[in-house]
Amino acid sequence: MIEFRDVGKRFADGTVGLESLSLTAREGEITVLVGPSGCGKTTSLRTVNRMVEPTSGAVYLAGRDVAQGDPADLRRGIGYVIQQAGLFPHRRVIDNVATVPVLQGLSRREARARAAEVLERVGLDAALAQRWPAQLSGGQQQRVGVARALAGDAPVLLMDEPFSAVDPVVRVELQDELLRLQADLGKTILFVTHDIDEAIRLGDRVAVLRVGGRLAQFAPPDELLAHPVDDFVAGFVGRDRGYRRLGFVPATALRLVDLPTRADANGDSGTPGEWTVLLDGSERPAAWLGPDGARHDLGSVYVTDGDDAAADAAGTLRGALDAALSSPAGRGVAVDGAGRYRGGVDTDDVLALLDRGAPR
Ligand SMILES: Nc1ncnc2c1ncn2[C@@H]1O[C@H](COP(=O)(O)OP(=O)(O)OP(=O)(O)O)[C@@H](O)[C@H]1O
């Protein structure tokens, strides 16, 4: 648990980075700090590992004031990931990751073994371990950054815009990866971003800050979207928040309908006369066959019981609505966690659930 108690920071030139921040990041959760540029997100984060010393108030980590004791000891117990990974350019990937275990007293050999383990954990091929950071893509560098922060096995991770330097597709992959890791590891994570979508996707709880590090609202994502406390927060979370919030509403009451299906064995399936789902040999939907026999893309599918925590809209009204609206047939295709055909999603059924007031 990380607790900020009335933390203020006035820099030497008189700039107020933080006025008085009070909030608690719970153990085992991802707490996201989000807000416009200059609102004090990075400053807040850095008061935790004492890269910034507050001018008033205090930060408590697991009940202890971080100002007491040696900052170097403190930092060894805290993983830190920054934008553009901050890798040491003159150390190979494996030695970048082994840095903290070495500082913790492991032999170089043990530290490298530990590093190899964590690199695998974040989805990096062992072949990359001997490269220099400059020989990696931006996304790979960020993964190494995460691996390095995990290698010390610290219970607390500070992540400062760790994914903002990569393109949107890789960014979503990295977010998925973090959620997957977190489901296993249960770290206490403080995550800074200026991207509200990222905040909502990753945060168990999200703190929206305004300039001066003043807390505008601190709440779980669904509550933030449903009940923004004021115009600032409402403006920040955006106008499409009703739609976003569907991503948190389980579609348990949605019943699936039967769709015509056909095996996609020969490619040429004739003219069905109505929209028909083509299934591959493993019962997975491959495409739609139009009434005139032409093939069409499936559109997005609705995952009914995806067991992957990272599957964004698994089993939610948003997933159901996306599937129904993106399908050329006017009805969406539902699959199970393994991608096998389960049934169809009727747009009217989804809209009826929305009308019944499930989401606000
Ligand atoms: N060392 C410093 N000296 C003076 N002012 C500083 C210093 N570091 C940060 N500030 C100021 O403190 C305020 C908060 O900065 P901070 O970096 O915490 O904001 P941020 O929310 O992380 O912004 P961004 O999203 O742009 O990174 C800003 O006005 C910034 O200019």
TrEMBL record:
One of its GO terms (molecular function) is ATP binding. SMART domains: AAA. Residues 2-237 form the ABC transporter domain. The keyword Glycosyltransferase does not apply. Keywords: ATP-binding, Nucleotide-binding. The keyword Cell division does not apply. Pfam families: ABC_tran (PF00005). PANTHER family: GLYCINE BETAINE/PROLINE BETAINE TRANSPORT SYSTEM ATP-BINDING PROTEIN PROV (PTHR43869), GLYCINE BETAINE_PROLINE BETAINE TRANSPORT SYSTEM ATP-BINDING PROTEIN PROV (PTHR43869:SF1). This is ABC transporter ATP-binding protein. It comes from Actinomycetospora rhizophila.
